[in-house]
Design a protein that fits this description.
Layout: H1 2-11, E1 13-14, E2 20-21, H2 32-45, E3 53-57, H3 60-69, E4 77-80, E5 92-98, E6 105-111, E7 120-128, H4 132-144, E8 147-157, H5 162-168, E9 173-181, E10 188-189
Parallel strand pairs: 3-4, 3-7, 7-8, 8-9
Antiparallel strand pairs: 1-2, 5-6, 9-10
Helix pairs in contact: 2-3
The structure holds guanosine-5'-monophosphate (5GP).
C-alpha cells in the first residue's frame, strides 16, 4: 500500500534493535484518515470473506481494528486481554505469547461469550515480527471453532520469520507494507 509506505519513510524511525517506531501516526498518536485508507485496503483484500468479527490484541491493535471494522459493515471487534481482570468473568480462551518488544511472556485471554463456531474471524494487528502474537490469536480462533478469514497486518517485518512460518502453516497473511530491512536507520521495503 503505497500511501502507507510513503508515511513509514516520512515519519517512521528505525532503532538499532530492529524495532520500527511509527508512534506519530499508528500506535501512539493515530492518523484516522490513514487508518480509514488502511480499512479500505483490508476490505478490498478480504472482500470475498464473510467476516463476522475482527479479533485483535491490546493495546495497539484496538484503535486500528475499531476503524477497520467500519469498512466491514461495523462487525464487532474483540480484543484479547493481556492481564487478568475482574471484568473478565466466566469461561475463557487462553494462549501464551512471548512479547517481541518487551522480551516477556504473558497469557492472553478472550471470553468464550464473544467467539464461537458461528463466526468467521479476521485477525488484525499493527506489526508482525516473530509471529508470537498472531500464533496466540490463531490458537484462540482454533479453540473457539470459528472459521478464519485470515490475518491482516499493517506492517510486517519481513526480515523476521513470523510471516514465513505462518504462511508455511497455510495461514493467509495480508501485510500492507513489508519491510525487508531497517539497517543503519534506513528503511527498505520488500516490493
Ligand atoms: P510478534 O509477536 O510478531 O513477534 O510481534 C508482534 C507484536 O510486537 C505486535 O503486536 C507489536 O505490538 C509488537 N512489535 C513487534 N515489532 C515491532 C516494531 O518493530 N515496532 C513496534 N512499534 N511494535 C512492534
Amino acid at each position: 500500500m503505497e500511501l502507507l509506505k510513503q508515511r513509514i519513510l516520512q515519519d517512521g524511525r528505525a532503532t538499532e534493535d530492529d524495532v520500527l517506531k511509527v508512534d506519530s501516526f499508528l500506535n501512539h498518536q493515530m492518523d484516522i484518515s490513514l487508518l480509514n485508507e488502511i480499512g479500505k485496503e483490508f476490505r478490498r483484500r478480504f472482500a470475498g470473506e464473510p467476516v463476522t468479527k475482527i479479533l485483535t490484541i491490546e493495546a495497539s491493535g484496538i484503535g486500528i481494528a475499531a476503524i477497520v471494522a467500519q469498512h466491514f459493515g461495523n462487525v464487532p471487534v474483540v480484543f484479547a486481554k493481556k492481564t487478568q481482570s475482574r471484568n473478565l468473568d466466566g469461561a475463557l480462551y487462553t494462549a501464551r505469547v512471548q512479547s517481541f518488544t518487551k522480551g516477556t511472556v504473558y497469557d492472553i485471554q478472550v471470553s468464550r461469550k464473544f467467539l464461537g463456531p458461528q463466526d468467521c474471524v479476521l485477525i488484525l494487528d499493527d506489526f508482525l515480527a516473530r509471529g508470537q502474537a498472531l500464533q496466540g490469536l490463531l490458537k484462540i480462533v482454533k479453540d473457539s471453532g470459528a472459521k478464519l478469514a485470515g490475518c491482516g497486518i499493517v506492517i510486517e517485518k519481513g526480515f523476521q520469520d513470523g510471516g514465513r512460518i505462518l504462511r508455511a502453516q497455510g495461514v493467509r497473511v495480508e501485510s500492507l507494507a513489508i519491510v525487508s530491512s531497517i539497517s543503519g536507520g534506513k528503511i527498505t521495503f520488500a516490493e
